[in-house]
Design goal:
The chain is α+β, with helices and mostly antiparallel strands. About 25% of the residues lie in helices and about 30% in strands. The protein has one domain: Metallo-beta-lactamase, Chain A (4-Layer Sandwich), CATH 3.60.15. About 5% of the residues have low confidence. Keywords: Hydrolase, Metal-binding, Signal, Zinc.
Length: about 325
């Protein structure tokens, strides 16, 4: 365990340095920006309604954060997809209505990344619910663009919710051994985990899990370590239909579908993250199920198609009835 933690820190020393760059400069501006779009979109998976929720978007300079790229590759692929650097990266969360329960997948950013983000609570309310009604939150991983929205100052934003987080993820970000071995420049990230997740842990509102069993009827966690040690997919199945919540398996669609080996500075273990990404793409393309992705352009739901060594993103068909596939 000690060797594992030490090696992870060697890899991750560069990871969070990027988070203090231009992206986080936006956080100095405290006034929120009003969403220009509704921020919620409904889809039906068998008997289960899933609502895609927007936390907002943020400029992301791919030249600074993407790794393992070839010269000119980023700009070439962006141009091919009618995009330009910096891209406008989405931060998506998802609300599952299951057997009378409201189950949220990830919790947004709150104040941490600037005024164009932090709109999850607003999107929940626009969809017809309130944060107080959320029963459970499935955390894909503890990076603060997925857990920042758990707290507003000293107040729990989701006071009636239980957090479900994999045991390896809790051990890494909230473990005393991990924090003690972290260099000084990384301490603030462990501090933010304590600030955002810690109050729920102290209140007995965190349930950790291993893998292999359902957390709720039709919802199963799948280990996908690499981006973080305890990164988790959540599989939703109902009446023969399937949706997999991918979390941070990828961040730049135009680049990483064309070249799955491209990694990002936020990966704790880039090689393992790239391997997980390729496996996820292969399976989704082969089986044809829907996936929901945190940082693909909102609503972030669609299919993956294989084309030779590359993959193509096929967004879900827009439907006024919420039945798009």
């Amino acid at each position: 365990m000690k060797t594992f933690v030490r090696s992870l820190f060697k890899i991750s020393c560069t990871v969070f340095l990027y988070l203090s760059s231009d992206l986080v400069v936006l956080a100095q501006h405290s006034n929120p920006i009003t969403l220009a779009q509704p921020g919620y979109y409904r889809v039906q998976i068998g008997d289960v309604e899933v609502i895609a929720l927007s936390d907002g978007t943020v400029p992301l300079d791919l030249h600074k954060v993407l790794t393992n790229t070839q010269p000119g590759e980023i700009d070439q692929l962006l141009k091919h997809n009618y995009e330009a650097n910096p891209i406008e990266a989405s931060v998506n969360a998802y609300l599952i209505k299951l057997n009378g329960k409201l189950i949220l997948v990830d919790a947004g950013t709150a104040e941490l990344y600037g005024p164009t983000l932090g709109h999850l609570s607003e999107s929940i309310k626009r969809s017809g619910y309130t944060p107080e009604q959320i029963d459970a939150i499935l955390v894909t991983h503890i990076h603060t663009d997925h857990t920042g929205g758990l707290m507003e100052g000293n107040k729990m934003v989701f006071p009636n919710a239980t957090l479900y987080i994999s045991q390896p993820e809790v051990d890494f970000w909230l473990g005393e051994e991990s924090k003690a071995k972290a260099p000084e420049r990384l301490q603030k990230w462990f501090h933010e985990a304590e600030v955002k997740v810690g109050p729920y842990l102290k209140a007995g509102k965190v349930k950790t899990f291993g893998y292999g069993a359902e957390l709720f009827p039709g919802i199963t966690p799948i280990a996908s370590p690499g981006h973080t040690p305890g990164h988790t997919f959540y599989v939703l199945e109902s009446k023969g239909q399937k949706l997999v919540f991918w979390g941070d398996i990828m961040h730049a669609a135009a680049i990483q579908f064309a070249n799955p080996s491209v990694t990002i500075a936020f990966d704790v273990d880039p090689k393992k993250a790239a391997l997980q990404r390729k496996r996820a793409y292969d399976e989704a393309a082969r089986q044809g199920y829907l996936v929901a992705v945190a940082h693909i352009s909102y609503p972030g739901i669609g299919h993956v198609r294989a084309e030779g060594s590359r993959f193509v993103w096929i967004p879900i068909t827009y439907s006024t009835l919420g039945t798009g596939q």
